[in-house]
Amino acid sequence: MTKKKELADPSKRGRIDAEIKRLSGLLGGVDGKSKKIVSSLIGNAAFMSVTLEDLQETMNENGVVSEYQNGENQWGTKKSPEVEIYNTMIKNHSAIMKQLTDLLPKVPPKADDDDGFGGFVKEREEQ
Fold first, then answer.
1. First-to-final CA distance of the chain
2. Phi then psi dihedrals of residue 105, to 5 deg
3. How far apart are CA 74 and CA 21, in angstroms?
4. What is the dihedral of CA 102, 105, 106, 108, to 10 degrees?
5. Confidence at residue 1, expressed as pLDDT on a 0 to 100 scale
6. What radius of gyration do the chain's Cα atoms show?
7. Other residues' Cβ atoms within 10 Å of the Cβ of residue 69
8. Helix ranges restricted to H, the chain
9. CA gap 106, 71 in Å, rounded
10. Residue 77 DSSP one-character state
């Protein structure tokens, strides 16, 4: 996930648009009254996904610690600003993704997953 996907449009806007398209495809089965909610959530999720990728790349290149100078002779290290932004954004992104997955229609289990137990119980009840 840290490596940017090769896209026809490598700009941030192009990457966000590609992510919106991908998420919209995955969430195509959402009912009509939830579409407006989904549209807003998808836009925010796409922005955060692309921004998180960029932050990961920056942290991989520069590390997660930065040096600071506080005064003339006081130096130290602290979490980089990217780490703080990433930590906040990943929590928000996770919350949005949960909201989106909760809006997906519930799919009943496939008949192929039938282990025969239900049929066994039904036969026993009929006897």
1. 56
2. -65, 145
3. 49
4. -160
5. 43
6. 23
7. 9
8. 12-26, 35-62, 81-103, 117-126
9. 59
10. E
Q: Taking Cα atoms as reference points, which of 20, 9, 26 lies closest to residue 43? A: 20
53 Cβ contact list (under 8 Å, min separation 6): 1, 2, 4, 15
Residue 104 near residue 35, CB atoms below 8 Å = no
Return the half-sphere exposure (C-beta side, CA atoms, 13 A cut-off) of residue 96. Answer: 20
What pTM value is reported for the model? 0.71
What is the per-residue pLDDT across 63-97, written as a single tens digit (0 to 9) for each?
A: 999 988 888 888 899 999 999 999 999 999 999 99
Cβ atoms of 40 and 96 within 8 Å: the answer is no
> Two tokens at 77?
């290290």
What whole-number distance in Å separates Cα of residue 47 and Cα of residue 53?
10
Residue type present at position 79: K
Q: In angstroms, rounded to a whole number, what is the distance separating the alpha carbons of residues 44 and 65? A: 28
Question: 120 or 101: whose pLDDT is higher?
Answer: 101
Element (H, E) at 79: strand 75-79
Instruction: Give the C-alpha separation, 15 to 24, whole Å.
Output: 14
